[in-house]
């Protein structure tokens, strides 16, 4: 493979984004990109083709790619290519250039376009080679996207069950109504659980019916009124903060970072979204053990841009130290971990609204005080056995695909520099 030396400006010129205030956006399907990724949606595209978005102000040098038409706001640059595979080649190339270190303004972080354009790059001379490299690496991203699609389906099923059984109490309400009408409460609950008619239930195999009957019997036949609202008998209302142990991450200073990436990575929101990257900071200092995380840790990001940062995450990036603004959620069982995960997914819109009401300079927070005020239904032993039977297997399946994404990401990131340098060629 033959290479040529050129400049970034000659190969991939940066174009300035255009301002689009949140108040001027109209709901649509076009992603709106800021310097740190998607910040909203709009009904009109600034760029009517796929492209690369580069952080200009704020998150300097952060690189995103959009495979669909998009809007890049004025804190960004964007770049385009005629061929999608070459666009992905260019995207991976930019990720290797560490543009995040090119901060030209100490007061407000900024990426100077002229300085970026002068960067010398070595790229395959033949367009076909660049295209082949882009396609080869993109296969990993496609596999990752497939895993994410499966995870989305699993979470949809899980949330449907959670909302029906543990938020709306549909099987209990069905029993209450049946009892008031003098009809079979078990059959009513089975209908609510399965969505089947009595005639369809009669056609079930005995094993299927027994499973549904046992599930129906796990729900009480009465709703109890309280100040917080109705709740199944035997269940209780709890403050969100009391459903588990929530440990906020540690505060790290620049002096804590190791120059040679010694020790373990410091896990911030960026790592929760993108995994360990070349921008991840490491520390070899002794940190309190309560801030240590490893594969399978359940985390909640409680501070940041409400629409994009407030989320519950599963961590599968190996050993690390948790940064502030993220809770490590400790429970005494995997069953309760599955409950908390689904609970926080269901509560996401409400938690976002709480954060928005206290939003300053684009950031919002969900505090411990907020979590102590927010009351949630907490199941009894029978309820947690239902979670073990139905939601925990889905939680584990979700985790397996999340772990697979991490493996694919690591393999891809190991291949990228070898392919871009020509040390490894696409067969």
TrEMBL record:
CDD domains for this protein: RMtype1_S_EcoAO83I-TRD1-CR1_like
Type I restriction modification DNA specificity domain residues: 2-155, 233-381
Matching InterPro entries: Restrct_endonuc_typeI_TRD, Restrct_endonuc_typeI_TRD_sf, Type-I_RS_S_subunit
GO BP: DNA restriction-modification system
Alphabetic keyword roster: DNA-binding, Endonuclease, Hydrolase, Nuclease, Restriction system
GO MF term list: DNA binding; endonuclease activity
One Pfam family here: Methylase_S
Keyword Iron applies: no
Family per similarity comment: Belongs to the type-I restriction system S methylase family.
PANTHER family tied to this protein: TYPE I RESTRICTION ENZYME MJAVIII SPECIFICITY SUBUNIT, TYPE-1 RESTRICTION ENZYME ECOKI SPECIFICITY PROTEIN
Protein name: Restriction endonuclease subunit S
Species name: Pontibacter oryzae
